[in-house]
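ESCALATION

Customer reports they have been waiting on this structure for their group meeting. Please prioritize. Original submission:
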Amino acid sequence: AMDLPALMAAVDTIHARDPSTLRRIDASTARVVPAAVLDASSSCFQTHTTYAVDDTDDASAAATLIHIFTLRDNVREALVHTLVPLGLRKFRRGREDEERSLGGAVPGPGSDVSVVRSNRGGYQSYADLLDSSDDDGDGDGSDDDDGEMGGDAASDRCERTPTDANAPASATTTPSTSTHARTSIPLHESVTWTTINAIAIEAYERIRRPAQRPAASPADVYGWLNVNAPGDYNRLHAHDSAEHWSGVLYLQIPHPVDDDAGCLGVRSDAPRDARETPYFVHPPRVGDLACFSGAALHAVSAFTAANAQNKHSQSLRDDAFRVSVA
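Update from on-call: job pushed to the front of the queue and completed.
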């Protein structure tokens, strides 16, 4: 499988860059952009850090920023407990459907069959996953461009204060001064795929640009399930325009044995003739939510897991898969 620098160079695509001009940055070397103080007592998140993918001082250049959120422990544990088994069940049903149909299975609404977008190997569901509250996953298909929580963001499962939820657009000038709604997930209710909408809407309210509306609806969010075995990866791609946001929420991460294996890479929007092109590397952890502009080019490298005996997904242990919602 391709490593992350090769994926970032994308030499065989329209996004090609000279590999010698690439510059790797990560949380220890990137410039941190000031963000609003996060009150974990009224939030889905316990931390939020914003990094600049290039050297620009323009905080409004969303294509060059990456936001890393970490879920509160109780939110993370509730999601993992319910959604990882549902995700693996959906993935295995899709594989079984493909085998029974001798390759003729068609992905789409109501289907568990994988789509193929940027993913090379791996499973990607049809992109209406977050529309479904079925506790057994039936009917929650998913499709779209390639891989991460698209749309503006939304939720109808948040508990919000009316004043904050209706805050005017003028209340925000930069991501570091945004006014956002108080949001919490009602964990006493059953966790379903739609629970993720609550997380998406709060993230949107924290990172939205001044020109974007201060509130969103469930219709603004779409998402899909990703299940990757060792060796699976996603090629360099973008989802949408800079008017929208992309994100990926990590629910299960096998322990990698190689540097930058299984990492998310987000490439700078540097011009083709720039002397160097920085790219930000994020080694994901369970409960991380990474958000970036819908126009940002990004890729996901393959990982090797110490507990994986071979590449055949039918024989891998459940904990050998990376599970995420994008």
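Sent to customer with the following note: The helical segments are 4-9, 73-100, 162-165, 195-207.
Escalation resolved.
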